[in-house]
Each structure stands twice: as structure tokens, then as C-alpha cells.
Amino acid sequence: MSTSTSGLWVAYGSEGSVVGTIRRGDDGYTATIADADSSLGTYPTMEIAKSALHGHLPAGSDWPRFTEH
Predict the structure, then answer these.
(1) What does the radius of gyration of the chain's CA atoms come to, in whole angstroms?
(2) For 40-60, how does the pLDDT look when each residue is reduced to its tens digit (9 = 90+)?
């Protein structure tokens, strides 16, 4: 039996636009802001990756809606 170790969550802002992504891999969860050339980093948990992504959005941004794809 094989288990998937990869996953993708898309983060949507309050107006429905994509603001970033989080990918699950063997090393953890990698957060990337939309249209960025590089990731913010890889984090040990999904919650930390979500917080990192939100922390790099413009000041006053609402918490994104994360949808698994």
C-alpha cells in the first residue's frame, strides 16, 4: 500500500484571489506567496506554515481561506 506524502493547499484572500500556496513534502510544509520567486520557507506543521504565509501578507489582511487541491 502506498501513501501520498504530497499535498497542495491554495490560500485565497478576502476578495477570492489567490494569495499563496502551501505544499506538503517530506521535509514539512512549504509556504509561498503568490507570484513570488521563492518560498517563505519550510515549516514543521501546517499551522505554522499558515501563520507564516499570513504574516507576509500586507498589513491588515484577513486570514486567508485555505483549500486543499
Answers:
(1) 12
(2) 999 999 999 999 999 999 999
